[in-house]
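I have been asked to look over a protein record a colleague put together. This is what I was given:
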Amino acid sequence: MKDNLRFVDSDMHVMEPPDLFERYLDPKYRDRVTVKLGAHGRPVRGAAGLILIDGQPTSDNDLQQYRKPRSSAKTKVISPLAGSRLQETDRLDFAIARDYDPEAQVMGMAMEGVDIAVLYPTMGLGLLARNGIEPGLSLAVCQAYNNWLHEFCQYSPERLKFVAMLPMHDVHLACKELIRCVRDMGAVGSFIRPNLVNGHYWHSNYWDPLYSVHEDLNVTWGFHEGVSAQYSHMIELYGENRFYRHVAAHWIEMQQSMIAMIIGGVFEFHPRLRVAFLEANNSWVPGLLSRIENDYPQYRETHAPYLALTPKEYFQRNCWAAVEGSEPEIEATAKFIGADRMCISTDYPHFDSNYPNVANNLLKNCSRETAAAIMAGGASLYGFTEADFRKADKAAAAAGKHANGKNKPVGKRKLAVAA
């Protein structure tokens, strides 16, 4: 708990081990995925984009020839919104010393006051973010990641939950992998990038089987951008400048996916679908809903006669949007869409996170009542009940010495990449 409030981290990240594919990838595909090696010949940590699939980059890393620090010194740059970011502190030393293992994950939760965390990838954000990947290879990569993450969560399954990575290059394989992960491994949803895969619009009938399986399994569809997608049109617009693309992608790609889901009728035809818009702030949601509703009277009958509700009603029935705690618009947004339609992401352990002060920032930026609803918002999003919280409490108590965040050895700093 945080300040006696229930706290679900709706979007906490893991740092995948460098030898993940060596250990978990189907041997049939192992020579098609290559990773950075150290002089000892073993996989070592490196930028996610250094992973190659069929010799091609898995992110925008090869565009970043100008993205280099001026010096190795800490900048100590603090802005009103960013606060003190992880890149300027030593707050991750305990996790680095443990190589981001499950023990470090649970320790990090205790320091922030998180009851239950839903885990999303780091390397995996851009791993399959390219059109034209062979579906069988896409599935094998997803299975390797999902199998590793399931084992990772077994350290404390009451507190560590995960969403499945899906092979979106074939909708039926994506359905098959989601079913496996939910039924066999307890996944609470899926991780989907908002960028179009192989040109399939989100309102296309192509995705109907996957929407239906999410409904039938009663699990969450989590949109999470990562800026590095090779199929994102942001690269065409802004080229190698990641500053441009990071600002634009996390909002605009999310906005386009929400427009498609609402106007395209996804929520009309899949009324039980729960969708989260993660790590993109959420102050854009009221303005976009108002814009859609402005055009609603003149276009509904001719272009969307199937819509039975208003855009805001669809959002308030089917959607959640995440905050990261320091946004000044939180209270105003909550008044428009409802605090119960909001959740929170710590973004641990990425360098642009305010961890472990995310909840503190939230409590400073809105009323306690609003903060309580937002911190617990992930429970309704992912379907957690009071019984799940009781199990998490019991696991946290059993963890004992780790729950209070003590015993934090110092190790060499290795910063996580930003989403």
